[in-house]
Amino acid sequence: MMKVCISGLGRAGSQIAKYLLACDRVDLVSGICSPTSTKAGRDLGEIIGCRAAGVPVYPSDRIESCIFNTRPDLILDFSNAAAALKNAETFFSLNVRVVMGTTGFSKAEEAELYALADRFGAGLIYAPNITRGVSTMMLLTELASRILTGYDVEIIEMHHKRKVDIPSGTASKLADRLRESLPVGERHDVPVSSVRAGGIVGCHKVMLVGENDMIEISHQSFSRNAFAEGALFAAEFIQDKTGIFEMKDAMNLDGILMDYLNQSSDNPPRRFALV
Ligand SMILES: NC(=O)C1=CN([C@@H]2O[C@H](COP(=O)(O)OP(=O)(O)OC[C@H]3O[C@@H](n4cnc5c(N)ncnc54)[C@H](O)[C@@H]3O)[C@@H](O)[C@H]2O)C=CC1
Ligand SMILES: O=C(O)C1=N[C@H](C(=O)O)C[C@H](O)C1
Questions:
Q1: CATH superfamily membership of 132-220
Q2: Most CB within 10 Å of its CB: which of 2, 109, 149, 232?
Q3: How far is CA 128 from CA 125, 151, 165, 172, 231, in A?
Q4: pTM of structure
């Protein structure tokens, strides 16, 4: 069975740990926390309020021991951008695959992450949003923006008030993708508005607004189990691969779209002749 380690045991990482401990498709073998965290040396099951699970937690300055002692096939990283980038180099150098859920990277840091993965011939899924729902939403919004040319496009993202990065990684990726789907020469930045309030788990909305009508495509995560479900999906995809991937690759979205188009051309709409 695939062996998994979670790096970053905060809101997202802890809930993912809880989900994976109750799941029989993976073996959660270890956790990684910050070097100053009181979680180091404790049992991950106890930390997240479950029974002792025999899952040790290592501080990130002892990653080598963690990997050597618990032998994970892959890491699920939900920490912070600075820690994630530093730790990724060690994971890749030890031939461990990474599902990178962490956000807040600058463009230069993103490029560095890709360069590291390339240099070590690693397996990486970089997913600023790990839910299948958001990847589906990205595809739908790109299609909609190509159809509704001339419409204004705006993104609204809403998260809990303790989230440190702004705008969200998901909103930045949506904005980049929507910008690139505009015709060359007409490309402009897509505005993002951010709300940080209460305990909102995660909500992204894309609005395409014309003079006389508008459409909205939105996604909402009801709980952090949405991230756990997505992380498991990504892990099962990357476990035997090398290369750099996105969630849309794990979901085969290009293939599904191609099948859909081929199917519609196999079954052209019936036309009625006037006789
Ligand atoms: N891709 C996705 O779908 C999702 C991404 N995220 C991202 O995951 C990250 C974490 O989010 P939250 O859990 O809400 O934040 P959080 O602040 O609750 O958790 C981050 C954890 O990382 C730990 N950490 C700090 N330095 C570390 C190190 N050197 N090694 C390992 N762990 C270290 C912190 O002590 C903390 O426990 C954020 O970047 C967030 O945007 C969160 C949810 C879903
Ligand atoms: O910090 C979070 O919580 C989330 N972060 C991700 C992001 O920045 O897009 C994804 C998700 O919406 C939750």
A1: Dihydrodipicolinate Reductase; domain 2 (3.30.360.10)
A2: 232
A3: 10, 26, 12, 9, 11
A4: 0.96
